[in-house]
Write a structure and sequence with these properties.
The structure holds 2 protein chains of 2 kinds.
Chain A: E1 7-11, E2 23-29, E3 32-39, H1 47-51, H2 56-64, H3 71-86, H4 92-121, H5 125-145, E4 154-155, E5 158-159, H6 167-190, H7 193-199, H8 207-213, H9 218-222, H10 229-232, H11 258-282, E6 301-308, E7 313-320, E8 328-332, H12 334-339, H13 342-346, H14 351-361, H15 365-369
Antiparallel strand pairs in A: 1-2, 2-3, 4-5, 6-7, 7-8
Chain B: H1 2-9, H2 12-45, H3 61-71, H4 82-98, H5 117-138, H6 142-173, H7 178-184, H8 202-225, H9 237-240, H10 250-275, H11 286-289, H12 295-319, H13 327-354
Classes of the chains: A alpha+beta, B mainly alpha.
């Protein structure tokens, strides 16, 4: 008998497909994965500790830097949390603009997820099509608040700027063009035979395991549970809009495989388009700054607020001791929790599948490490 | 060509050197052009412009890149096997370069008209695998090793359907000599092998579907042999960083690059020679029409280069459209589908030719 031993392959933190500075320690038997150990912390910036030394509005720019692909959604969650602490009611117009921004951000974030997933599988072109369109969302954001990635736009009680001239029409134009891109991406990637071969029946996450691991967002829905906080625990004005919650059906394999996780994101983009169209239709006039408090000093208390981020359930646990600074801010980062299932999913697959599975979970290291 | 130089200079050494250097005059400009073309093709497919600054529409970009690569420091990592590490890129390039010796560019030029032509090409292309294995092993890098082992398995496997298809052609033509195979597909395009060659009678019509199957198999395997998408598993960027050439930089990396593009043209040229009439024009020659017979070989060369570049373009087209297969899927495609189909195809063509 030939003596064989397992090989340890160090993937990352500098690797094209670990989506940031994630380091995976792969124990391999030939090309087959025996064990995966993720090593985190390369991007740790002490977000939670920083919060204890800053006033409530000062925290917003730091919130942007958690999931830097979905800054608007992070801000929305934080603003809602502090507003609940202060018991503020924000104006209608602000609510609508917030929803429009959060949903545009969801589209942008899913574009990155789908596009980079294509690269992980080896198809480069859809990535650039999606980034071309993402650029238009970023331009809309830039016109609104001057920033393209880290906005500091959604403030406690209001917004930093009102919408620019012609925003509604430009957004409508973008949505109409983007529908065509979605068809194109579907043809190039989703229904491509090679792509299906690579992703269907790979990294199957059964529903019970998903719930046990605390998986949320698109990954949970891909496993078959209709769970979306916009519906199940409505915040802002999401209860006014008509939209579907797509769930994984295992069209090309088993429910909860990589293809489902990927495809759910495409379906969710379509639903986001519907929400934005309705919000643009109903957008009321009004003042956006009327409810912004001069001094934020909540009474003693604590609360947990959660919102449906593109990556999953983003939760803020804020403890106030009646001071200008929060006593404690704890974040429940969806990427971090979703990443915990990686080792389970990868066992027994090949090296190439690790990339496919990691990409389908869609993590952002800025949020995993904070 | 060798005989021509031997008569001219009366020396075997000069003749060998000169006839060996001629393909180089073609390969280097071709590689520069192909790299530029690849960038432009990918750019226009992806709704962008690609290189635009150096020269008109960036046509000097690859020249600038080569100048940069020449100036780069030649890094050899500390624990590499220096000898193998340095030989490997040369061997890889040699494998793809040697193949050009037997490719008939026109009726007037072929490096060496040996009778084993096509088998010789298959054999020397096999050297590339040795170079890649050496590069992967000598780099002392696990990613390189994975890339090299995958590449060896892949190229060795895909040579089998290639050879089976080549044998199909050889049965129809009755020769391994590439010039003879080309001459078999004489004047017009309906005599090309893909349309049954210049076989007489009903047999020609019966051959057409089997030739089509043969060509598709040959083209798929040639993609795998040149490590192009959807079979670029040895250098799968998203998994293995750079595959077997992860540790290479500067001119050694450029050698791998040059070899890849030379190889792309070599397999395209073989496909064109076997199935699309080689250097023959589909419509007849201008030189014959206006009574300048020396113009014919030049036209033939242009036709040959255009056919080769067309197939290179198709390779690029596929690369920027398709995702990548996985290792096991790649192997099962070869062993479960291509080889049996190629073998049955081979038997049927043999039967048609015998009857």
């Amino acid at each position: 008998m030939l003596k064989t031993e397992q090989m340890v392959l160090n993937m990352g933190p500098q690797h094209p497909s670990t989506h940031g500075v994630l380091r995976l320690e792969l124990e391999l038997d030939g090309e087959i994965i025996v064990n995966v150990i993720p090593h985190l912390g390369y991007l740790h910036r002490c977000f939670e500790k920083h919060c204890e030394a800053m006033t409530y509005p000062q925290i917003i720019p730091y919130v942007d830097r958690m999931d830097y692909l979905a800054s608007m959604s992070n801000e929305l969650g934080y603003a809602i949390a502090v507003e609940r602490l202060l018991d503020i009611k924000v104006p209608e117009r602000v609510e609508y603009i917030r929803v429009i921004m959060a949903e545009l951000q969801r589209i942008a974030s899913h574009m990155v997820a789908v596009g980079t997933y294509g690269i992980d599988i080896g198809a480069f072109t859809p990535f650039l099509y999606l980034f071309r369109d993402r650029e238009r969302i970023l331009t809309l954001f830039e016109k609104t608040c001057g920033a393209r990635l880290l906005y500091n736009y959604i403030w406690v009680g209001g917004l930093s700027h009102d919408l620019p001239l012609n925003f509604v029409n430009e957004t409508r134009d973008f949505l109409n063009d983007f529908k065509k891109t979605l068809v194109e991406v579907n043809n190039l990637l989703s229904y491509n035979k090679i792509f299906i071969e690579r992703t269907a029946n790979i990294g199957i996450l059964p529903l019970d395991a998903a719930i046990n691991y605390g998986i949320t967002g698109a990954n949970l829905r891909a496993s078959g549970l209709k769970w979306d906080l916009r519906r199940n625990d409505p915040y802002s004005i999401y209860d006014r809009f008509d939209f579907e919650i797509p769930v994984g059906e295992g069209l090309h394999g088993t429910a909860g495989d990589c293809w489902d996780r990927y495809y759910i994101r495409l379906l969710e983009m379509e639903q986001s388009i519907r929400i934005i169209e309705q919000a643009l239709e109903q957008l009321p006039e009004g003042d956006i700054a009327s409810a912004i408090p001069k001094r934020i000093k909540p009474v003693e208390g604590q609360l947990y607020t959660r919102v449906e981020n593109p990556k999953g359930e983003l939760g803020y646990f804020i403890v106030s001791k009646g001071q200008l600074q929060p006593f404690r801010v704890k974040v429940r980062p969806p990427s971090f929790v979703n990443l915990s299932v990686l080792g389970e999913l990868c066992k027994g697959h090949l090296i190439a599948d690790v990339i496919a599975i990691l990409g389908s979970i869609d993590i952002v290291l800025g949020e995993v490490d904070r | 060509m060798y005989e021509f130089f031997a008569n001219l200079f009366g020396s075997d050494i000069i003749a060998s050197f000169l006839s060996g250097a001629i393909p180089f005059i073609f390969i280097v400009p071709f590689a520069l052009f192909a790299v530029w073309l690849e960038r432009k093709v990918s750019a226009h497919m992806q709704d962008r412009l690609g290189p635009m600054r150096v020269g008109y529409h960036g046509w000097l970009q690859t020249v600038a890149d080569i100048l940069k690569l020449i100036q780069k420091e030649d890094i050899t990592a500390s624990d590499t096997d220096k000898k193998l590490f340095n030989i490997a890129p040369v061997l890889v390039f040699m494998g793809s370069y040697a193949a050009f010796a037997a490719i008939p560019f026109s009726s007037a030029y072929i490096g060496t008209g040996i009778d084993l032509g096509i088998i010789y090409i298959v054999a020397v292309s096999g050297l590339v695998v040795a170079g890649i294995l050496m590069a992967g092993w000598a780099s002392n890098n696990k990613y390189s090793l994975y890339g090299a082992v995958r590449s060896a398995a892949q190229v060795v496997s895909y040579e089998i359907p290639t050879v089976l298809v080549i044998l199909t052609i050889v049965i129809v033509v009755g020769s391994l000599n590439l010039t003879k195979i080309t001459e078999f597909q004489t004047a017009r395009f309906w005599d090309w092998m893909i349309f049954g060659g210049s076989v007489a009678g009903v047999k020609k019509l019966i051959l057409i579907p089997f030739m089509l199957i043969g060509f598709i198999i040959l083209y798929i395997s040639s993609l795998a042999e040149t490590n192009r998408t959807p079979f670029d598993i040895p250098e799968a960027e998203s998994e293995l960083v750079g595959g077997y050439h992860t540790e290479y930089s500067g001119m050694k990396f450029a050698m791998f690059f040059l070899a890849e593009y030379a190889n792309m043209f070599a397999v395209s040229a073989v496909a064109a020679t076997l199935f699309f009439g080689g250097y023959h024009s589909p419509f007849g020659y201008l030189g014959n029409l206006i009574g300048l017979p020396w113009l014919v070989p030049v036209e033939q060369f242009l036709w040959f280069a255009s056919k080769g570049i067309f197939f290179v373009f198709v390779q690029m087209w596929l690369r920027w459209t398709l995702p990548r297969l996985r290792v096991d899927q790649l192997m099962s495609l070869c062993w479960k589908y291509l080889i049996p189909v190629a073998f049955v195809n081979f038997l049927i063509v043999a039967l048609i030719m015998v009857l």
